[in-house]
Amino acid sequence: MSINKEIKKVTTNTLQKMKSDGEKISMLTAYDFSFAKLFDSAGIDVLLVGDSASNVMAGHETTLPITLDQMIYHAQSVIRAVDRCLVVVDLPFGYYQSNSEIALASAIRVMKESGAHALKLEGGTEIIESVKKIVAAGIPVMGHLGLTPQSIYKFGTYNVRAKDKTEAGKLKEDSKLLEEAGCFAIVLEKIPAQLAKEVSEHLQIPTIGIGAGKYCDGQVLVMHDMLGINTEFKPRFLRQYLNLADEITGAVKHYIKDVKEKDFPNDVESY
Ligand code: KIV
User: Fold this and answer.
1) Please, which residues have CB within 8 angstroms of residue 97's CB and are 6 or more apart in sequence?
2) Is residue 6 annotated as a catalytic residue, yes or no?
3) E-strand spans in the chain?
4) Is 150 exposed, middle or buried (0-12, 13-18, 19+ CB in 10 A)?
5) Residue 221: C-alpha distances to residues 42, 142, 208, 225 (Å)
6) d(CA 250, ligand 1 centre) in Å
7) Tens-place pLDDT, residues 61-74
8) Containing H/E element for 16?
């Protein structure tokens, strides 16, 4: 038996059990083969091929421009790398909002062409028919509520969402609707910790927080933020575990110096 067959893969059922057992779920974004392989080997539970690829990989200001083909390309690279973790892929803006038939067609394309394990869609009641159709086709769906970046032009800012009663009430209702529609988990982005606590306690399915406090059933961060590759983004919720920007800049400067000074390559490094 190969080593890979002995690895116990993370499934949506595993995440549900983790919630029941009180074990927190770890999730990070990944967009390419090399990082996904490192994260999977390190033991991450879930990798999200986020449409934040639009920002951190392509340099766009928002997540709106990324296409379905580009998401499939990133998802294929991540899927090739992993042995254990669950890989969730964002359905990008414009490929599911217009109607549930289009949403299902987009969902099927991502699943078929990338080998992804699950999809994530942003929104509540507005997309509920699409969620139901995709789930009915046998595709696991993760919801995403609170600061949903695909709606940034509606919000106008990246500030904390659902601080007022009306928006908090709608978020709670949406979370229940998503659970009833068959979602296996919900990302809660940038909402008050107390609201995230109430939602997490109210739902059977796990919540995964980003800027939503410690009571969520799991946490997610964008890899470029937590590794310190992207140094301009410093929101309060972010814990930066490395300063890769400095490390990489230092290494590249060292390499440039070695080349300029004819130190690299030396005889041992030559054929
Ligand atoms: O695209 C993304 O990276 C996300 C996370 C912020 C949850 O949706």
Assistant:
1) 103, 123, 126, 127
2) no
3) 25-29, 46-49, 86-90, 118-120, 141-146, 185-189, 207-210, 218-221
4) buried
5) 15, 16, 10, 7
6) 29
7) 999 999 999 999 99
8) helix 12-21
Catalytic residue among 173, 189, 247, 261: 189
> Could you give all domains of the chain from N- to C-terminal order, each with its CATH number?
12-240 (3.20.20.60), 245-271 (no CATH)
From 87, 90, 188, 237, the mutation candidate for ligand 1 (largest count of ligand atoms within 8 A of CB) is 90
Q: Is the CB of 187 under 6 A from ligand 1?
A: yes
Measured by CA distance, the residue closest to atom 4 of ligand 1 is: 50
| C-alpha 52 – ligand 1 centre gap (Å) | 6
CA of 121 to the centre of ligand 1 (A): 10
Indicate if the pLDDT at residue 267 is higher than 70. Answer: yes
**142 in contact with ligand 1, CB cutoff 6 A:** no
Interval 83-112: pLDDT, tens: 999 999 999 999 999 999 999 999 999 999
Instruction: Answer whether 63's CB lies under 8 Å from 93's CB.
Output: yes
